[in-house]
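Lab notebook, bench 4. Still working through the backlog of constructs that have no structural model yet. Next entry is a single chain of 836 residues. Request: give me the structure tokens for it.
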Amino acid sequence: MGQGKSILASAALALWTSLGIWAAPPSATIDRAVDTAKVKADLFGDPLPERAIARMGSTFLRHAGSIENLAFSADGKILASGDMFGTVHIWDLARSRHISEVWGGFDEQSLALSPDGQLLATGSAMDNDVRLWNSVTGREVAQLSCKSSPKSLLFAPDGNFLAVGSSQGDIYFWDVPSGQLRAQLRGHDGCIRALAFSRDSLELASGGDDKTICIWELPAGTRVKRLTGYKREIRFLSFSPDGSCLMSIGDDEGYLGGGLLEAKSWEATTGKITNELPDNYFGRYPGVLSPDWQVVACGGESGRILLLRAGSADISKSWRAHSKSVKVLKYSPDGKILASSGDDNTIHLWDSVTGKEIAWRLGHQSQVTAVGFLPGGERLLSMSSDGSARVWEMRTGKQIRRISIDPGRIFQGSAPLGLVPGTSLFVAGNTEVNLVDADSGKIVREIHNQRLSLTTPAMSANGKLVVVGDFEGRVQVVEVKTGRKIRSLNLVDKPGVAALALAFSPDASLLASTHRLRFAAGDPSGVCLTDVATGKVLRRLEVNRAKINCLVFSPDGKMLATGCQDGTIGLWQVATGKEYRRIHHDRDLATCLAFSADGKMLASGSGGGLVYLWEVSTGQERARFPGHTGNVTSVAFAQDGRTLASGGDDTTALVWDVMGAGPDPSKPVGASNPGLDMSWADLQSLDAQQAFDALRFFVSRPKKAVTYLAKVFHPAEEWPAGKIAALLPGLDDVRFQVRMKAFQDLAELGEAAGPVLRQALQDKLSLESRRRIEQLLEQLDPARSRSRLRALRAIEALEYIGTPEAKQLLTELARGAKYARQTEEAQAAQQRLNSK
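Model written out:
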């Protein structure tokens, strides 16, 4: 029973996916050893992901979820931390570096670090096993099976034994070197939450939900004492340095969001209470005792840490440590460092005497909720639930300015950052909505103040209107300049229905919104398209798949993109309400969306830390950028489309080089242009990634690319409407060969035949003719034609190049056949370039 065994990573992946927590867990054996000489680093020396330009903030001592466990090595130089999603990070505190990462299982995870810091033990409620990992490599070395799920883990001071407290009240006592179970101790009636070894490893104390403490003699496993009299669950145990006394702390964690600490010290031999802390500290949890037994540290929902003199009610020191609740406190074994973690996904290290922070790094101290580029594209603005907005140098990650905003005024959602075009003004708010100047850091104007808990706002493209929704389904359109309420919309008639996502069309004439019961787990949602001027709902898009996380209109307003909890992205035709295309994430939910300024690309964030880049015309993936851990909360393109910013729950923002840089060694440019020839051929590939590589190849060689394209890429040929119309009767000919010839001829004409075909549908037709014309119109979808795809991609490359020579070629292409898609795209690209 006690033998170690290997983990099947596929089983963990299947469980994670089947439970619907996220698309896929972080790898169970992630080794982040990186050759820093070959990899670009951020300001703190941490490696940047491939194609990342800069990181805003730091990954050090950061997670993508609430951090619920901490453990030190005996020398205090190594720290292990585990979060709500089961990810465990190992940190080298001496060098301020990340060592490794493992996935230890979600759902009430527990962990312990061996005294030498070389071995990590993890357990979770998802199964009955304890996993042992090499903390340096992140690789699993053993698996120990228990009969019930592990709830608390602790290595003995000598590192030879591991105690496991279980959900059923049993303690499993393992010999670490051999992996053998030495004893199974029974003495509790409920879950065991706390364990403590004496310094000589000859005694073990245990406590938990049954409000009792047991003291065991080791290695025999004989219970020598059972201590009672507690009113609350036992959460912390510690032997005094000489082993003569035992300190215990219980609390009511979770009761009305706070906890009542109950601390007692006992004589280890007699079980007599020697001291007792008054239990009137509501909201002060968790509680831990310093190794020298002089101080009780506790925290709570306010984010503050309080230091109490042991055995008294006197507060010796307190300070604001986190932007959200403090979840865990842990002293280093020598008592010099107090580590804290919280719901803000961060870990902080404090001098236990002065309260001064150690190893502090500049950056957001909680989830990044929104990102956006300021005018000029060289500065990035980010907002966070830590109550701040920050301005950064886009290319270096250097912080320019920190703007303090009340955390209650920071929205937490997936809408794009509300920036007034051409200015440094942006919208921030929660119960209030304010216009803030990113350059001065000052609130310019109060826009909306209804003292309601609001969902994420949305700003119109011209920066004149803001729409806000609340958790009762009410939606209000407000004028930014005056704060005047333009219109109130009641789009749902059910109580407790929240307005979850909002988006203006580019001309601000339409409002897209999605609503959902606040606490509903199922109940698929749809989208309302509402006329802003009249308040009338014009159309409802029945998504009927899963919760909609985000909405965004395409720049021309013809399309609406919806990102759903089930990982699908819907592209909807606004005029008809029909779904034009459906995109599927790789087993991952869609958390945020953004179109490029030309509408050719759609970026999406995921719950698994990936940023995806999609080709709108085909719905295929062009590229993906791994770099965040956990939710990607916001994505935003720079105006030129060459860079993309993303923010995440891991407290950082990243800027990505979308178009890439440097030559592709597989396609050298020579006298005979083999690279250009290959790229021209690849532009028509049905593989969007291959085609995008070819597009980037052209963009990276602007002069040669324009010269080459001018030779091979020509305006669309004009076909007289009369000749096209003359082919239509053939679709209804009694002879099959004639019908097929007419169909094929019209199909070859492509967009040139489009206007005539659409007009023909307005006339009276036979069922056969109507069916074939509808088929022809469906084939006008660029994704069905390699030649049309190549034309659209070549025009996109020319717009990115943007040189006078490229503009001249676009002008020539814009003179092609009047209704050809190629002509229309060239005209649109020309207009965008001329407007810059």
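Notes after review: The first strand starts at residue 30 and ends at 31. Residues 786-801 form the longest helix (16 residues). Flag for follow-up if needed.
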